[in-house]
Design a protein that fits this description.
mainly alpha; 49% helix; transcription coregulator activity; transcription; activator; transcription regulation
Length: 175
């Protein structure tokens, strides 16, 4: 039995990681430019922030080695990085703290839509115990069906064998 996702719910509709990383890079570049401590090309380093694989350290936005920051619009996973001017970006790829709520609005709305769509899926309200009980019932039903098919197959083979024997005897009598 195939399960179908509601209209509008797809893996791309809930992919927030690339959008979130783009916002973080823009925010960090603005902070670095304000402090004058870190140059914009070195922002792919994001030292101390977790990368996509969940580890921390000197890795790029795409999880590669330091300095291997993908260009805006490049593919990272299945979704391209946001390019150009952000939702509230100033056009230079930088984002101030004041612009952060406006920049994350799209992300927040995307998650709200996904949450609402997930709630429309069948059996979302069922407990794990209820689901496990149904799985056990279905496995038992399948086992009984396999046994019944094996019995029908054996009876069919016996019937075919008996029919063949009857035909063979009939042909011998005619001769």
């Amino acid at each position: 039995m195939a399960s179908h996702l509601p209209e509008g719910l797809s893996p791309d509709s809930v992919d927030t990681l690339t959008e979130l990383m783009s916002i973080v890079v823009k925010l960090r570049s603005a902070q670095a430019a304000a402090s004058g401590g870190m140059s914009t090309p070195a922002l792919g380093n994001l030292a101390g922030l977790p990368n996509i694989s969940g580890t921390t350290g000197a890795t790029s936005v795409a999880g590669g080695p330091s300095g291997a920051t993908p260009a805006l619009g490049a593919m990272t996973g299945s979704t391209p990085l946001a390019g150009g001017i952000g939702a509230a970006g100033n056009g230079a790829g930088m984002l101030s703290i004041k612009e952060l709520p406006a920049a994350t609005d799209n992300l927040k709305h995307k998650l709200q839509r996904a949450r609402a769509l997930v709630k429309t899926l069948p059996d979302v309200g069922r407990s794990i115990a209820q689901q496990e009980a149904e799985i056990s019932e279905l496995e038992e039903r399948r086992r009984r069906q396999v046994a019944m098919l094996a019995k029908i197959k054996d009876e069919g083979l016996q019937f075919a064998s008996a029919e063949q024997s009857t035909r063979d005897e009939g042909e011998r009598m005619v001769e």
